Amino acid sequence: MVKNAFYAQSGGVTAVINASACAVIETARKHPDKIGKVYAGANGILGALYENLIDTSLESKASIAALQHTPGGAFGSCRYKLKDIESHRDEYERLIEVFKAHNIGYFFYNGGGDSSDTAYKVSQLSEKMGYPLSCIGIPKTVDNDLPFTDNCPGFGSVAKYVAVSVKEASLDIESMCESSTKVFIMEVMGRHAGWIAAAGGLASAAEGEGPPHVIIFPETPFVKAAFLEAVQNAVDKDGYCVIVVSEGARYEDGTFLADAGTLDAFGHTQLGGVATTLAQFVKNELGHKYHYAVADYLQRSARHIASSVDLEQAYAVGKAAVEYAIAGRNAVMPIIVRDQTKSYSWHIDQVDLSRVANVEKKMPADFISADGFGITQKARDYLSPLIKGEAYPPYESGLPCYVRLKNTQIPKKLPPFVAR
Description:
Elements: E1 3-9, H1 17-29, E2 35-41, H2 46-49, E3 53-55, H3 61-66, H4 89-101, E4 104-111, H5 113-128, E5 134-139, H6 155-176, E6 183-188, H7 195-199, E7 214-216, H8 224-238, E8 241-246, E9 259-263, E10 269-271, H9 274-286, E11 290-294, H10 296-301, H11 308-326, E12 332-338, E13 346-352, H12 353-356, H13 377-383, E14 395-396, E15 399-400
Parallel strand pairs: 1-2, 1-4, 4-5, 6-8, 6-11, 7-8
Antiparallel strand pairs: 2-3, 9-10, 12-13, 14-15
Helix pairs in contact: 1-11, 4-5, 8-9
């Protein structure tokens, strides 16, 4: 029996998440004997809860293809975590009601660890309620912290942006350090894992051969005295110091250097502002003039400089998700597996969602240099292939051409949802 599919984007978007969406829709269109229409959730899982379903069949082939070079979330994303089934069963039952009403037999959830948890819970409830539903998680996170997959779609492009930005900013400060700024700090995302910060290390050809001089990882407890010494040593040696710091940098007792004192919708500590903390240390203790930058949304939306490897992998996991679903698989997630070959190559495999949900993959200790402020050759070998290749979007009048879909919603069939 032909069933419709539901696709939604969750959490922070990336430069290539729409490539996964493109793959889901294009692959589904090739199997009309299995999948009728692909409905996208307006603003993530909220689209299912409130029955705001977008009919992607109304979008042209060209518009869907253009998603591959368009950043952001084409259908809207959300930071909304479904609670546990026991205390909030109404939310899960509502999802099943919406899926029943619109003949949806496939559920594709494109996100990180919390999204994997949601997809797994929905798969379990559908079995308990006797409603057949194939639930497939599609990996996405700039933080690169999902387990089992070699890397996460979205990370390679952020890594490329950070490495390029650090390289270019380093040339700028080197030009000015004799009579002006001597310390530049770049704050990057990553939450509790230092993968993005580590990517900044690719700005130099090898350890000790140029900036960044100092990288601060969440995995290495921050010691103020050691940090200041490293900064001063760089200034003494090169005349300037370039620092890359992860937003999740923390002291030995686990306290974040920058904690906004609030939680996001997923219950995670709201991070940001660590660059200003370090800048004050540099000013007050060393007296150096500084500048800092917070990459923030720029690093994850920079489609103009995306990695072609990242783009290919983002499309591949979306395509595999549909193929797994029509093959009858359930509660799994496509993963990227690095081949043990001399030149970089990879393939797609799968892992059970139950093993992925809410598990964070941190930077291995042997990826961090002995002094705690740099990356090792092993880290370079891992990171370098992920930023390879340019996948420039088409340009017009000097600006990239990005698509905006019509996002036409279908008529509702159910009463409005009211959370209990």
